[in-house]
Design the sequence.
């Protein structure tokens, strides 16, 4: 009866099985979880994992997007379309509302809004009494993320305490919280950028068009490629050029830069990812470069 | 998992593995070159690659586990970079709990130290089946074969005496210099006397988890799928039991028993992502459907009827205490075993293990980082296998109901 297993799972199957297990633990342990869905590639993978975890049933959580108001329209359209196709409830909460309430105060109108998302997120958590937010963060993205648990405890101020994390052993995740506290659950913690693209390829997942090579007006600014948009206009003296680019990450317009690329299909992107010499965030995130500890700092303040 | 302290060259070793497998990208290299210069170092310091949190940089130590990723083309690896200091024993146990191979670093100039003993004991306790003793900094002992042989001998003697040789005996010794890259990925002239495999060759050859011993089928139920309100009438009677195959395999038609009820049925369908498959294997997250209507909820376990585990309301276990608040014999705790929760109370502590001398001593309570053999009384039974035979059904965590914190890690004997 008891037989020796000779088959093992491929790495993508293994990562998928682990992610499904984590989502089901959230569903089994938490009363009011929510899945954060931005329309970005990682959260697109998460939706596929959720389908595999819960179909033919409905997802045991709604989807939610924290909109900074500075998102590419293609991504917003894709977000709405994808939620509708799945027949799942999508909640959108926007930074603009927090600004109206006076809980987000920008230093200047063109200040990057990424870090202020934390405020709107915490307000939405309070509004819906969410006890767990499922997010698509990966440990390979950044060194503060490399230290984070799969189920990461946040106190009632949404703070992460990196020096005193809840121990997490085997696959015995502990998502218990008191009222007002919450868990951030990261089912694809162990995926790398390459795994994400290979999964998108294997599962034939649709993505917002800006992930693929397209022509875009840009300027070069201190080593980065900065897209020229209504919220990120060219500065005087900068030369606007048309470049074939794609986005490796998609976030707030003011802090996400594209890379020069002619990869217009998923398989070309997989190839490019295998041979790139620049890290995902290094190339594309203008907000992580301010100091060695930017992400750690933001996470302590309730950021994802 | 890598264990050792910064002084042993652990960060340099990991940096070297990442660097030599070309995992480090240009912008990261530029950044550590900059930092190396800023700190007045002559060469690029590869250990900066594993630099972590602000507090860790301030103190120059590793506090918590960091996970890093690399691949070789044939395999993908997750390195759990574990802290080596005694006050972070609990974090090392955390890292060890999911590891399949442990790299235990030894400084060739110092030989087997107290911390080597502690790391070896913990790797053994947590059941890591493959262990590599990496004798590092060989460049500082003139690549002496004699020194290497002496340390191997010392280590073997202590490991045998303490019963720390892994089952199957997969214990290897590799002389290396992480700083210069000797025997990490490539063999070098410096130690032509060493004929064994390099570290990466050992990693590449290690058998994957769950392939070395026959294991019974264990399926803890995480979630029950009942889409009765669906528009599709075919689904009105659908009852899917969702979980992960922790060990063994399952096919349509297999006779199964549901615990704790003891009800039996047969497997009607095995589904993966909503699609039927013929057989489910270890580590797959599946949905099982049964022939008969059986009341099953989260915390129950589906097993094959011919290999039912024992129900235990009292467990003997090795426990590692993780909390600053000591284990109190007077209090009631919760334990989580697979997806099942039970109340638990301490019956007694048989002994406390001194992780440095590996001697047993008496104890009436347990403080943070203590490891002890305990007896627990449970309010509801758990269906357990001995940890040494099955990590998934032999492990449990202890939860403090007042804080909800995970305060203990247990391995059932």
Sequence:
């Amino acid at each position: 009866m008891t037989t020796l297993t000779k088959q093992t799972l491929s790495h993508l199957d293994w990562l998928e099985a682990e992610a499904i297990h984590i989502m089901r633990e959230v569903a089994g342990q938490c009363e009011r979880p929510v899945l954060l869905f931005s329309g970005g590639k990682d959260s697109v993978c998460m939706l596929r994992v959720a389908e595999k975890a819960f179909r033919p049933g409905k997802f045991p959580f709604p989807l939610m997007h924290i909109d900074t108001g500075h998102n590419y329209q293609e991504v917003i359209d894709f977000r709405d379309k994808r939620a509708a196709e799945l027949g799942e409830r999508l909640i959108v909460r926007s930074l603009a509302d927090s600004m109206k309430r006076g809980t987000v105060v920008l230093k200047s109108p063109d200040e990057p809004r990424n870090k202020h998302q934390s405020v709107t997120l915490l307000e939405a958590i309070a509004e819906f009494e969410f006890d767990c937010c499922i997010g698509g963060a990966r440990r390979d993205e950044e060194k503060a993320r490399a230290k984070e648990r799969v189920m990461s405890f946040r106190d009632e101020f949404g703070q992460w305490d990196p020096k005193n994390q809840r121990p997490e052993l085997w696959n015995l995740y502990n998502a218990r919280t008191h009222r007002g506290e919450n868990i951030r659950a990261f089912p694809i913690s162990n995926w790398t950028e390459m795994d994400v693209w290979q999964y998108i390829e294997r599962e034939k997942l649709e993505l917002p068009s800006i992930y693929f090579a397209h022509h875009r007006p840009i300027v070069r600014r201190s080593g980065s490629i900065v897209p020229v948009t209504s919220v990120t206009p060219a500065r005087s003296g900068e030369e606007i050029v048309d470049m074939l680019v794609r986005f490796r990450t998609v976030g707030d317009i003011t802090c996400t830069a594209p890379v020069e690329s002619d990869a217009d299909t998923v398989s070309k992107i997989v190839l490019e990812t295998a041979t790139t010499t620049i890290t995902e965030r290094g190339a594309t995130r203008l907000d992580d470069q301010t100091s060695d500890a930017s992400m750690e700092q933001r996470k302590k303040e309730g950021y994802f | 998992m890598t264990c050792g302290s910064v002084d042993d060259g652990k960060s340099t070793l990991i940096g070297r593995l990442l660097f030599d497998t070309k995992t480090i990208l240009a912008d990261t290299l530029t950044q550590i070159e900059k930092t190396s210069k800023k700190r007045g170092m002559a060469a690029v310091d590869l250990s900066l690659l594993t630099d972590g949190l602000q507090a860790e940089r301030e103190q120059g130590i590793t506090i918590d586990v960091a996970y890093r990723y690399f691949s070789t083309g044939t395999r993908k690896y997750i390195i759990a970079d574990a802290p080596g200091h005694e006050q972070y024993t609990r974090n090392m146990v955390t890292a060890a709990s999911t590891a399949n191979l442990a790299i235990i670093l030894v400084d060739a100039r110092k030989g087997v130290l107290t911390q080597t003993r502690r790391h070896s004991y913990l790797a053994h306790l947590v059941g890591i089946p493959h262990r590599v003793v990496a004798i590092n900094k060989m460049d500082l002992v003139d690549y002496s074969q004699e020194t290497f042989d002496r340390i191997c001998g010392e280590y073997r003697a202590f490991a045998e005496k303490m019963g720390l040789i892994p089952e199957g005996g997969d214990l290897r010794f590799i002389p290396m210099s992480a700083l210069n890259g000797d025997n990490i990925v490539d063999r070098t002239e410096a130690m032509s006397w060493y004929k064994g495999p390099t570290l990466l060759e050992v990693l590449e050859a290690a058998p994957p988890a769950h392939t070395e011993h026959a294991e019974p089928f264990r399926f803890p139920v995480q979630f029950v799928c009942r889409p009765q309100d669906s528009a599709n009438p075919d689904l009105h009677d659908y009852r899917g039991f969702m979980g992960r195959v922790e060990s063994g395999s399952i096919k349509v038609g297999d006779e199964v028993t549901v615990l704790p009820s003891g009800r039996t049925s047969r497997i009607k369908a095995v589904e993966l992502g909503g699609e039927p498959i013929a057989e489910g294997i270890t580590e797959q997250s599946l949905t099982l459907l049964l022939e008969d209507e059986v009341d099953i909820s989260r915390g129950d376990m589906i097993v094959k009827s011919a290999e039912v585990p024992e129900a235990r309301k009292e467990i003997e276990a090795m426990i590692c205490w993780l909390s600053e608040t000591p284990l109190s014999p007077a209090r009631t705790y919760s334990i989580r075993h697979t997806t099942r929760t039970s109340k638990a109370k301490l019956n007694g502590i048989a002994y406390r293990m001194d992780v440095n001398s590996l001697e047993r001593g008496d104890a009436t309570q347990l403080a943070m980082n203590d490891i002890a053999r305990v007896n627990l009384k449970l309010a509801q039974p758990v269906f357990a296998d001995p940890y040494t035979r099955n990590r998934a059904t032999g492990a449990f965590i202890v939860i403090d109901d007042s804080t909800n914190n995970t305060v203990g890690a247990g391995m059932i004997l």
Remarks:
- The mean pLDDT of chain B is 90.
